[in-house]
Amino acid sequence: MNHEHARIMVVDDDPSLLRLLSIRLAGAGYQVESAESAKVALGVMSSFQPDVVISDLKMEGMDGFALYEQVRQRHPNLPVVIMTAHGTIPDAINATKQGVFSFLTKPFESKQLLDTVEQALKLQPLSSGQENTESWRKNIISRSSKMAQLLQQTKQVAQSNFSLLIQGQSGTGKELLANAVHRASKRASAPFTAINCAAIPESLLESELFGHVKGAFTGADQRHVGLFEACHGGTLFLDEIGDMPMNFQVKLLRALQEKEIRPVGSTQSIAVDVRVISATHKNLRKAIIEGKFREDLYYRLNVVELEIPALAQRREDIPLLAQHFLHKGKHQTDNVTVSGFTQEAMELLITAPWPGNIRQLENVIEQSIALATEPLISEQLISNALRNKPSELPSFAQARDQFERDYLAKLLRLTNGNVTQAARIAQRNRSEFYKLLNRHHLTPEAFRDANDESPLE
Protein backbone atom coordinates (compact mmCIF):
# COMPACT_ATOMS: atom_id res chain seq x y z
CA MET A 1 0.00 0.00 0.00
CA ASN A 2 1.07 3.65 -0.41
CA HIS A 3 1.90 4.83 3.11
CA GLU A 4 1.77 8.46 2.04
CA HIS A 5 -2.02 8.27 1.63
CA ALA A 6 -2.72 5.96 4.54
CA ARG A 7 -5.69 6.73 6.79
CA ILE A 8 -5.17 7.47 10.48
CA MET A 9 -7.83 7.64 13.20
CA VAL A 10 -6.84 9.72 16.27
CA VAL A 11 -8.90 9.45 19.47
CA ASP A 12 -8.37 11.68 22.54
CA ASP A 13 -10.70 13.55 24.90
CA ASP A 14 -8.23 16.47 25.06
CA PRO A 15 -9.30 18.79 22.18
CA SER A 16 -5.98 20.68 22.02
CA LEU A 17 -3.87 17.53 21.88
CA LEU A 18 -6.26 15.99 19.38
CA ARG A 19 -5.90 19.01 17.11
CA LEU A 20 -2.09 19.04 17.46
CA LEU A 21 -1.78 15.33 16.58
CA SER A 22 -4.07 15.74 13.59
CA ILE A 23 -1.96 18.64 12.27
CA ARG A 24 1.28 16.64 12.68
CA LEU A 25 -0.09 13.59 10.88
CA ALA A 26 -1.77 15.56 8.11
CA GLY A 27 1.49 17.45 7.58
CA ALA A 28 3.19 14.10 6.99
CA GLY A 29 0.75 13.33 4.18
CA TYR A 30 -1.70 11.09 6.02
CA GLN A 31 -5.49 11.29 5.78
CA VAL A 32 -6.63 11.97 9.32
CA GLU A 33 -9.96 11.64 11.10
CA SER A 34 -10.27 12.63 14.76
CA ALA A 35 -12.72 11.74 17.52
CA GLU A 36 -13.08 13.13 21.05
CA SER A 37 -14.30 9.80 22.50
CA ALA A 38 -14.16 6.10 21.79
CA LYS A 39 -17.88 5.97 21.01
CA VAL A 40 -17.53 8.77 18.46
CA ALA A 41 -14.55 6.94 16.94
CA LEU A 42 -16.57 3.75 16.46
CA GLY A 43 -19.30 5.74 14.78
CA VAL A 44 -16.84 7.46 12.44
CA MET A 45 -15.26 4.11 11.55
CA SER A 46 -18.52 2.93 10.02
CA SER A 47 -17.72 5.20 7.06
CA PHE A 48 -13.98 5.88 7.51
CA GLN A 49 -11.83 2.76 7.50
CA PRO A 50 -8.42 3.60 8.98
CA ASP A 51 -5.10 1.87 8.45
CA VAL A 52 -3.93 2.75 11.99
CA VAL A 53 -5.80 3.85 15.12
CA ILE A 54 -4.07 6.07 17.70
CA SER A 55 -5.97 6.39 20.97
CA ASP A 56 -5.41 7.80 24.43
CA LEU A 57 -5.63 5.17 27.17
CA LYS A 58 -7.45 7.15 29.88
CA MET A 59 -10.67 8.73 28.58
CA GLU A 60 -14.10 9.38 30.02
CA GLY A 61 -16.55 6.55 29.40
CA MET A 62 -15.01 3.92 27.16
CA ASP A 63 -11.21 3.97 27.58
CA GLY A 64 -8.55 3.21 25.00
CA PHE A 65 -8.28 -0.47 25.80
CA ALA A 66 -12.07 -0.95 25.58
CA LEU A 67 -11.91 0.80 22.20
CA TYR A 68 -9.16 -1.60 21.15
CA GLU A 69 -11.36 -4.57 22.09
CA GLN A 70 -14.16 -3.21 19.89
CA VAL A 71 -11.76 -2.54 17.00
CA ARG A 72 -10.18 -5.99 17.31
CA GLN A 73 -13.56 -7.70 17.04
CA ARG A 74 -14.39 -5.82 13.83
CA HIS A 75 -10.91 -5.66 12.29
CA PRO A 76 -8.54 -8.21 13.89
CA ASN A 77 -5.53 -7.07 11.85
CA LEU A 78 -5.88 -3.32 12.35
CA PRO A 79 -2.93 -1.95 14.40
CA VAL A 80 -3.87 0.17 17.42
CA VAL A 81 -1.37 2.51 19.11
CA ILE A 82 -2.10 3.56 22.70
CA MET A 83 -0.98 6.92 24.14
CA THR A 84 -0.35 7.01 27.88
CA ALA A 85 0.94 9.25 30.65
CA HIS A 86 3.81 8.10 32.87
CA GLY A 87 1.49 6.88 35.61
CA THR A 88 -0.31 4.45 33.31
CA ILE A 89 2.71 2.82 31.69
CA PRO A 90 2.03 -0.59 33.37
CA ASP A 91 -1.49 -0.53 31.90
CA ALA A 92 -0.10 0.28 28.47
CA ILE A 93 2.45 -2.54 28.67
CA ASN A 94 -0.33 -4.95 29.58
CA ALA A 95 -2.36 -3.65 26.64
CA THR A 96 0.58 -4.39 24.35
CA LYS A 97 0.69 -7.96 25.65
CA GLN A 98 -3.00 -8.26 24.78
CA GLY A 99 -2.30 -7.46 21.13
CA VAL A 100 -2.17 -3.65 21.01
CA PHE A 101 0.51 -2.75 18.45
CA SER A 102 2.49 -0.23 20.51
CA PHE A 103 2.23 2.61 23.01
CA LEU A 104 3.53 6.19 23.15
CA THR A 105 4.42 7.80 26.48
CA LYS A 106 3.40 11.46 26.74
CA PRO A 107 4.99 13.82 26.01
CA PHE A 108 6.49 12.48 22.78
CA GLU A 109 8.23 14.08 19.82
CA SER A 110 6.73 14.27 16.34
CA LYS A 111 9.45 11.96 15.02
CA GLN A 112 8.53 9.25 17.53
CA LEU A 113 4.88 9.54 16.53
CA LEU A 114 5.61 9.33 12.82
CA ASP A 115 8.12 6.50 13.23
CA THR A 116 5.55 4.46 15.21
CA VAL A 117 2.88 5.03 12.55
CA GLU A 118 5.30 4.10 9.77
CA GLN A 119 6.29 0.91 11.57
CA ALA A 120 2.64 -0.04 12.07
CA LEU A 121 1.97 0.47 8.37
CA LYS A 122 5.00 -1.57 7.33
CA LEU A 123 3.91 -4.49 9.48
CA GLN A 124 0.35 -4.10 8.26
CA PRO A 125 0.56 -3.69 4.47
CA LEU A 126 -2.86 -5.29 4.00
CA SER A 127 -5.01 -2.84 5.89
CA SER A 128 -8.63 -2.69 6.86
CA GLY A 129 -8.91 0.44 4.70
CA GLN A 130 -8.47 -1.91 1.75
CA GLU A 131 -11.10 -4.42 2.82
CA ASN A 132 -13.00 -4.30 -0.45
CA THR A 133 -9.86 -5.15 -2.45
CA GLU A 134 -8.09 -7.28 0.16
CA SER A 135 -11.00 -9.45 1.32
CA TRP A 136 -9.21 -12.42 -0.27
CA ARG A 137 -6.97 -12.75 2.82
CA LYS A 138 -9.43 -11.78 5.55
CA ASN A 139 -9.20 -15.20 7.26
CA ILE A 140 -5.43 -14.94 7.67
CA ILE A 141 -4.72 -13.11 10.92
CA SER A 142 -1.25 -11.63 10.91
CA ARG A 143 0.85 -8.50 11.23
CA SER A 144 4.30 -10.11 11.02
CA SER A 145 6.76 -9.08 8.34
CA LYS A 146 7.31 -12.73 7.32
CA MET A 147 3.62 -13.22 6.64
CA ALA A 148 3.35 -9.82 4.95
CA GLN A 149 6.04 -10.89 2.49
CA LEU A 150 4.36 -14.26 1.95
CA LEU A 151 0.97 -12.63 1.33
CA GLN A 152 2.48 -10.23 -1.20
CA GLN A 153 3.91 -13.24 -3.06
CA THR A 154 0.58 -15.02 -2.71
CA LYS A 155 -1.38 -12.20 -4.32
CA GLN A 156 1.11 -12.01 -7.16
CA VAL A 157 1.05 -15.71 -8.01
CA ALA A 158 -2.75 -15.82 -7.62
CA GLN A 159 -3.10 -13.91 -10.89
CA SER A 160 -1.60 -16.79 -12.88
CA ASN A 161 -2.96 -20.27 -13.57
CA PHE A 162 0.26 -22.08 -12.68
CA SER A 163 0.14 -25.05 -10.32
CA LEU A 164 1.24 -24.09 -6.83
CA LEU A 165 2.92 -26.09 -4.06
CA ILE A 166 2.61 -24.91 -0.45
CA GLN A 167 5.26 -26.23 1.92
CA GLY A 168 4.89 -25.95 5.68
CA GLN A 169 4.67 -27.80 8.96
CA SER A 170 1.40 -29.35 10.10
CA GLY A 171 -0.95 -26.84 11.68
CA THR A 172 0.46 -23.73 9.98
CA GLY A 173 -2.65 -22.97 7.90
CA LYS A 174 -1.81 -24.30 4.44
CA GLU A 175 -5.47 -24.70 3.45
CA LEU A 176 -6.22 -21.11 4.54
CA LEU A 177 -3.40 -19.89 2.31
CA ALA A 178 -4.63 -22.01 -0.60
CA ASN A 179 -8.11 -20.55 -0.16
CA ALA A 180 -6.61 -17.05 -0.12
CA VAL A 181 -4.90 -17.78 -3.45
CA HIS A 182 -8.25 -18.85 -4.88
CA ARG A 183 -10.07 -15.77 -3.54
CA ALA A 184 -7.42 -13.45 -5.01
CA SER A 185 -7.52 -15.13 -8.42
CA LYS A 186 -9.79 -14.73 -11.43
CA ARG A 187 -11.36 -18.05 -10.40
CA ALA A 188 -12.75 -16.62 -7.15
CA SER A 189 -16.39 -16.95 -8.27
CA ALA A 190 -15.92 -20.64 -9.12
CA PRO A 191 -15.68 -23.53 -6.61
CA PHE A 192 -12.79 -24.08 -4.22
CA THR A 193 -12.61 -27.68 -2.99
CA ALA A 194 -10.09 -29.23 -0.61
CA ILE A 195 -9.28 -32.92 -0.23
CA ASN A 196 -6.81 -34.63 2.10
CA CYS A 197 -4.99 -37.24 0.03
CA ALA A 198 -3.88 -39.12 3.15
CA ALA A 199 -7.46 -39.55 4.36
CA ILE A 200 -8.84 -41.27 1.23
CA PRO A 201 -8.21 -45.02 0.74
CA GLU A 202 -6.19 -45.75 -2.36
CA SER A 203 -9.04 -47.75 -3.87
CA LEU A 204 -11.36 -44.74 -3.66
CA LEU A 205 -8.99 -41.93 -4.56
CA GLU A 206 -9.38 -42.26 -8.34
CA SER A 207 -13.18 -42.28 -8.10
CA GLU A 208 -13.14 -39.33 -5.68
CA LEU A 209 -11.02 -37.17 -7.98
CA PHE A 210 -12.03 -38.38 -11.45
CA GLY A 211 -15.51 -39.78 -10.79
CA HIS A 212 -16.99 -43.02 -12.08
CA VAL A 213 -19.73 -44.17 -14.42
CA LYS A 214 -22.67 -46.37 -13.49
CA GLY A 215 -21.64 -50.01 -13.22
CA ALA A 216 -17.91 -49.23 -13.01
CA PHE A 217 -17.61 -51.50 -9.97
CA THR A 218 -19.76 -53.25 -7.39
CA GLY A 219 -21.95 -50.67 -5.72
CA ALA A 220 -21.59 -48.03 -8.48
CA ASP A 221 -25.32 -47.83 -9.12
CA GLN A 222 -25.18 -44.30 -10.52
CA ARG A 223 -22.73 -41.88 -12.12
CA HIS A 224 -20.47 -40.02 -9.67
CA VAL A 225 -18.96 -36.65 -10.59
CA GLY A 226 -15.35 -36.40 -9.42
CA LEU A 227 -13.80 -33.34 -7.81
CA PHE A 228 -11.87 -32.34 -10.93
CA GLU A 229 -15.09 -32.12 -12.92
CA ALA A 230 -17.03 -30.52 -10.05
CA CYS A 231 -14.30 -27.86 -9.70
CA HIS A 232 -14.34 -26.93 -13.39
CA GLY A 233 -13.27 -23.30 -13.65
CA GLY A 234 -12.19 -23.22 -10.02
CA THR A 235 -9.43 -24.44 -7.72
CA LEU A 236 -8.73 -27.91 -6.33
CA PHE A 237 -6.57 -28.11 -3.20
CA LEU A 238 -4.75 -31.42 -2.72
CA ASP A 239 -3.55 -31.49 0.88
CA GLU A 240 -0.89 -33.97 2.03
CA ILE A 241 0.09 -34.65 -1.58
CA GLY A 242 3.21 -36.42 -0.26
CA ASP A 243 0.99 -39.27 0.95
CA MET A 244 -0.56 -39.92 -2.47
CA PRO A 245 -0.02 -43.57 -3.53
CA MET A 246 2.58 -44.07 -6.27
CA ASN A 247 0.10 -46.01 -8.42
CA PHE A 248 -2.19 -43.00 -8.61
CA GLN A 249 0.53 -40.39 -9.11
CA VAL A 250 0.94 -41.25 -12.79
CA LYS A 251 -2.81 -40.82 -13.35
CA LEU A 252 -2.75 -37.41 -11.68
CA LEU A 253 0.25 -36.44 -13.80
CA ARG A 254 -1.65 -37.30 -16.97
CA ALA A 255 -4.67 -35.27 -15.85
CA LEU A 256 -2.47 -32.24 -15.21
CA GLN A 257 -0.61 -32.58 -18.50
CA GLU A 258 -3.60 -33.28 -20.73
CA LYS A 259 -6.10 -31.13 -18.77
CA GLU A 260 -8.60 -33.95 -19.00
CA ILE A 261 -9.76 -36.82 -16.82
CA ARG A 262 -11.31 -40.20 -17.49
CA PRO A 263 -13.89 -41.41 -14.95
CA VAL A 264 -13.45 -44.93 -13.63
CA GLY A 265 -15.17 -47.37 -15.98
CA SER A 266 -15.47 -44.87 -18.84
CA THR A 267 -13.83 -44.91 -22.26
CA GLN A 268 -14.41 -41.18 -22.78
CA SER A 269 -12.19 -38.39 -21.47
CA ILE A 270 -13.61 -35.14 -20.10
CA ALA A 271 -11.81 -31.81 -20.52
CA VAL A 272 -11.39 -29.90 -17.26
CA ASP A 273 -10.18 -26.41 -16.45
CA VAL A 274 -8.90 -26.60 -12.88
CA ARG A 275 -6.08 -24.89 -11.05
CA VAL A 276 -4.38 -27.36 -8.73
CA ILE A 277 -2.81 -26.19 -5.48
CA SER A 278 -1.08 -28.90 -3.48
CA ALA A 279 0.47 -28.88 -0.01
CA THR A 280 2.62 -31.09 2.13
CA HIS A 281 4.65 -31.08 5.33
CA LYS A 282 6.99 -33.70 3.86
CA ASN A 283 10.29 -33.22 2.05
CA LEU A 284 9.26 -34.21 -1.47
CA ARG A 285 12.81 -34.05 -2.82
CA LYS A 286 13.81 -36.66 -0.27
CA ALA A 287 10.71 -38.70 -1.17
CA ILE A 288 11.80 -38.63 -4.83
CA ILE A 289 15.25 -39.99 -3.93
CA GLU A 290 13.59 -42.72 -1.84
CA GLY A 291 11.32 -43.66 -4.76
CA LYS A 292 8.15 -42.62 -2.94
CA PHE A 293 7.22 -39.67 -5.16
CA ARG A 294 7.44 -39.19 -8.91
CA GLU A 295 9.92 -36.54 -10.00
CA ASP A 296 7.90 -35.61 -13.10
CA LEU A 297 4.79 -35.05 -10.97
CA TYR A 298 6.80 -32.95 -8.52
CA TYR A 299 7.86 -30.53 -11.25
CA ARG A 300 4.33 -30.41 -12.64
CA LEU A 301 2.91 -29.51 -9.20
CA ASN A 302 5.76 -27.24 -8.11
CA VAL A 303 5.68 -24.59 -10.83
CA VAL A 304 5.54 -22.00 -8.04
CA GLU A 305 6.36 -22.80 -4.40
CA LEU A 306 5.26 -20.92 -1.30
CA GLU A 307 6.56 -21.75 2.16
CA ILE A 308 4.38 -20.83 5.11
CA PRO A 309 6.39 -20.07 8.27
CA ALA A 310 6.01 -21.97 11.51
CA LEU A 311 4.30 -20.13 14.36
CA ALA A 312 7.65 -19.90 16.19
CA GLN A 313 8.92 -17.80 13.27
CA ARG A 314 6.07 -15.28 13.55
CA ARG A 315 5.72 -14.79 17.30
CA GLU A 316 4.45 -11.23 16.89
CA ASP A 317 1.23 -12.79 15.56
CA ILE A 318 0.61 -14.82 18.72
CA PRO A 319 -1.23 -12.05 20.68
CA LEU A 320 -3.52 -11.42 17.69
CA LEU A 321 -4.18 -15.13 17.16
CA ALA A 322 -4.70 -15.75 20.88
CA GLN A 323 -7.28 -12.97 21.10
CA HIS A 324 -8.99 -14.27 17.95
CA PHE A 325 -9.25 -17.81 19.34
CA LEU A 326 -10.39 -16.42 22.70
CA HIS A 327 -13.21 -14.47 21.05
CA LYS A 328 -14.12 -17.49 18.92
CA GLY A 329 -13.86 -20.05 21.72
CA LYS A 330 -15.75 -18.30 24.48
CA HIS A 331 -18.86 -18.16 22.29
CA GLN A 332 -18.70 -21.93 21.88
CA THR A 333 -18.97 -22.49 25.64
CA ASP A 334 -21.01 -21.11 28.53
CA ASN A 335 -17.91 -19.33 29.85
CA VAL A 336 -18.55 -15.96 28.17
CA THR A 337 -17.04 -14.00 31.10
CA VAL A 338 -13.46 -14.68 29.98
CA SER A 339 -12.15 -11.44 28.51
CA GLY A 340 -8.39 -11.78 28.13
CA PHE A 341 -5.06 -13.06 29.43
CA THR A 342 -2.85 -12.04 32.32
CA GLN A 343 0.46 -10.51 31.33
CA GLU A 344 2.29 -13.66 32.47
CA ALA A 345 -0.04 -15.89 30.47
CA MET A 346 0.53 -13.88 27.30
CA GLU A 347 4.29 -13.92 27.83
CA LEU A 348 4.16 -17.71 28.15
CA LEU A 349 2.13 -17.97 24.94
CA ILE A 350 4.63 -15.77 23.09
CA THR A 351 7.68 -17.76 24.24
CA ALA A 352 6.29 -21.33 23.99
CA PRO A 353 7.90 -23.58 21.32
CA TRP A 354 4.61 -24.49 19.47
CA PRO A 355 5.58 -27.69 17.65
CA GLY A 356 1.92 -28.02 16.66
CA ASN A 357 1.80 -24.44 15.36
CA ILE A 358 -1.50 -22.55 15.08
CA ARG A 359 -3.60 -25.67 15.50
CA GLN A 360 -1.91 -26.30 18.86
CA LEU A 361 -2.34 -22.66 19.91
CA GLU A 362 -6.08 -22.85 19.23
CA ASN A 363 -6.30 -26.07 21.25
CA VAL A 364 -4.44 -24.51 24.20
CA ILE A 365 -6.75 -21.48 24.19
CA GLU A 366 -9.86 -23.69 24.02
CA GLN A 367 -8.67 -25.80 26.97
CA SER A 368 -7.89 -22.68 28.98
CA ILE A 369 -11.32 -21.15 28.30
CA ALA A 370 -13.04 -24.35 29.38
CA LEU A 371 -11.22 -24.38 32.74
CA ALA A 372 -11.07 -20.64 33.44
CA THR A 373 -12.75 -19.37 36.62
CA GLU A 374 -11.58 -15.74 36.35
CA PRO A 375 -12.07 -13.07 33.65
CA LEU A 376 -8.37 -13.27 32.73
CA ILE A 377 -6.79 -16.58 31.72
CA SER A 378 -3.86 -17.29 34.04
CA GLU A 379 -0.33 -18.43 33.35
CA GLN A 380 -1.08 -21.68 35.20
CA LEU A 381 -3.96 -22.54 32.86
CA ILE A 382 -1.75 -21.95 29.81
CA SER A 383 1.08 -23.94 31.37
CA ASN A 384 -1.22 -26.87 32.12
CA ALA A 385 -2.65 -26.85 28.60
CA LEU A 386 0.84 -26.80 27.10
CA ARG A 387 2.04 -29.62 29.36
CA ASN A 388 -1.04 -31.82 29.09
CA LYS A 389 -1.16 -32.49 25.39
CA PRO A 390 -4.51 -33.97 24.30
CA SER A 391 -4.46 -37.56 23.17
CA GLU A 392 -3.90 -37.55 19.44
CA LEU A 393 -6.33 -39.41 17.23
CA PRO A 394 -4.47 -40.99 14.31
CA SER A 395 -5.32 -39.88 10.80
CA PHE A 396 -7.52 -42.11 8.65
CA ALA A 397 -4.46 -43.21 6.66
CA GLN A 398 -2.51 -44.07 9.82
CA ALA A 399 -5.45 -45.99 11.29
CA ARG A 400 -5.96 -47.87 8.01
CA ASP A 401 -2.28 -48.82 7.79
CA GLN A 402 -2.29 -50.05 11.38
CA PHE A 403 -5.39 -52.16 10.74
CA GLU A 404 -3.95 -53.66 7.55
CA ARG A 405 -0.65 -54.51 9.24
CA ASP A 406 -2.34 -56.11 12.26
CA TYR A 407 -4.83 -57.97 10.05
CA LEU A 408 -2.13 -59.38 7.78
CA ALA A 409 0.02 -60.42 10.72
CA LYS A 410 -2.96 -62.18 12.30
CA LEU A 411 -3.66 -64.06 9.05
CA LEU A 412 -0.05 -65.21 8.76
CA ARG A 413 0.00 -66.38 12.36
CA LEU A 414 -3.30 -68.22 11.82
CA THR A 415 -2.03 -69.99 8.67
CA ASN A 416 1.51 -70.53 9.97
CA GLY A 417 2.92 -68.34 7.20
CA ASN A 418 1.08 -70.07 4.33
CA VAL A 419 0.43 -67.31 1.80
CA THR A 420 -2.05 -69.30 -0.31
CA GLN A 421 -4.29 -70.03 2.69
CA ALA A 422 -3.98 -66.50 4.03
CA ALA A 423 -4.88 -64.95 0.64
CA ARG A 424 -7.89 -67.27 0.36
CA ILE A 425 -9.17 -66.22 3.79
CA ALA A 426 -8.66 -62.55 2.90
CA GLN A 427 -10.42 -63.13 -0.45
CA ARG A 428 -7.47 -61.68 -2.37
CA ASN A 429 -5.36 -63.23 -5.13
CA ARG A 430 -1.82 -64.23 -4.18
CA SER A 431 -0.05 -61.49 -6.18
CA GLU A 432 -2.18 -58.78 -4.57
CA PHE A 433 -1.63 -60.36 -1.16
CA TYR A 434 2.14 -60.34 -1.70
CA LYS A 435 1.96 -56.62 -2.58
CA LEU A 436 0.18 -55.97 0.72
CA LEU A 437 2.84 -57.93 2.60
CA ASN A 438 5.64 -55.99 0.90
CA ARG A 439 3.95 -52.67 1.64
CA HIS A 440 3.90 -53.49 5.35
CA HIS A 441 7.33 -55.19 5.35
CA LEU A 442 5.92 -58.55 6.47
CA THR A 443 7.68 -61.82 5.51
CA PRO A 444 5.73 -65.12 5.65
CA GLU A 445 8.83 -67.00 6.87
CA ALA A 446 8.81 -65.03 10.11
CA PHE A 447 5.43 -66.57 11.01
CA ARG A 448 6.37 -70.21 10.45
CA ASP A 449 7.14 -72.61 13.26
CA ALA A 450 10.76 -73.71 13.27
CA ASN A 451 9.81 -77.41 13.01
CA ASP A 452 7.23 -76.86 10.28
CA GLU A 453 8.64 -77.96 6.93
CA SER A 454 5.43 -77.55 4.89
CA PRO A 455 5.75 -75.33 1.80
CA LEU A 456 4.89 -71.64 2.17
CA GLU A 457 2.77 -71.54 -0.92
UniProtKB/TrEMBL annotation:
User: InterPro entries, per this entry?
Assistant: AAA+_ATPase (IPR003593), AAA_lid_NorR (IPR058031), CheY-like_superfamily (IPR011006), Homeodomain-like_sf (IPR009057), P-loop_NTPase (IPR027417), Sig_transdc_resp-reg_receiver (IPR001789), Sigma_54_int (IPR002078), Sigma_54_int_dom_ATP-bd_1 (IPR025662)
Q: Where is the Response regulatory domain?
A: 7-121
Put simply, this protein is called Response regulator
SMART domains xref list:
AAA (SM00382), REC (SM00448)
**What UniProt keywords apply to this chain's record, in alphabetical order?**
ATP-binding, Nucleotide-binding, Phosphoprotein, Transcription, Transcription regulation, Two-component regulatory system
Q: Which PANTHER family match?
A: TRANSCRIPTIONAL REGULATORY PROTEIN (PTHR32071), TRANSCRIPTIONAL REGULATORY PROTEIN GLRR (PTHR32071:SF116)
Q: Which domain of life is it from?
A: Bacteria
GO term, biological process aspect, one = regulation of DNA-templated transcription
Q: Which residues carry this modification: 4-aspartylphosphate?
A: 56
Q: Does the keyword Membrane apply?
A: no
Q: Where is the Sigma-54 factor interaction domain?
A: 140-370
Q: Which Pfam families match?
A: AAA_lid_14, Response_reg, Sigma54_activat
Q: Give one GO term, molecular function aspect.
A: ATP binding
Q: Does the keyword Nucleotide-binding apply?
A: yes
